[in-house]
Write a structure and sequence with these properties.
Layout: H1 3-8, H2 18-35, H3 42-50, E1 58-59, E2 63-65, E3 71-73, E4 78-79, E5 83-86, E6 91-93, E7 98-99, E8 104-106, E9 108-109, H4 114-118, E10 123-124, E11 127-129, E12 134-135, E13 140-141, E14 146-147, E15 152-153, E16 158-159, E17 167-171, E18 174-179
Parallel strand pairs: 1-4, 2-5, 3-6, 4-7, 5-8, 6-11, 7-12, 8-13, 11-14, 12-15, 13-16, 15-17
Antiparallel strand pairs: 9-10, 17-18
Helix pairs in contact: 2-3
Protein name: Acetyltransferase
Keywords: Acyltransferase, Repeat, Transferase
Organism: Salinicoccus siamensis
Length: about 180
Amino acid sequence: MTEKEKMLNGEYYDPYDATLVHLRENAQYLMDQYNHPGGGGKTRLLDMLFGYHADGASIRAPFFCDYGINIKVGRNFFANYNCTLLDVAKITIGNHVSLGPNVSLITATHPLDPMKRREGLELGLPITIGDDVWLGADVTVNPGVSIGDNTVIGAGSVVTKDMPPNVVAAGNPCRVIRALAASDE
């Protein structure tokens, strides 16, 4: 099994593998162009970074990711300034999702065992975000978390566990505050 396959399977992998280094360097090159002030062709650069046409995606620079190719966004995705999507595992984002400034989706994690950390091993757990989700400013979503459809996560929250659909949640750690109501605007 290749290091890339291990990475995408949620197993320990060597991040210094030549293929992974090359993929990260390619993503860095594309991000440098994307984040350059006044740089044009943002849609084309996102398409190249993600490896497909992200229909209606709008990401305000600066934008940061590890690989890009492990990110799948739905239609009409919006991310405000300073979005970080560390995609050592799959990040799947539904349709009509909005991310406030400084949002971080972090799939990368490290071993708890210090000896394994010394070996330089890493692993990643996927993040899934449903349709019509809104993450407020400065939200961090931890590895392995899923957020259900229509959910709103309040600014400054750290999402450490799955969030159900149709709720408002906030805090550190993030917790459900209440269900969305038909009267919510």
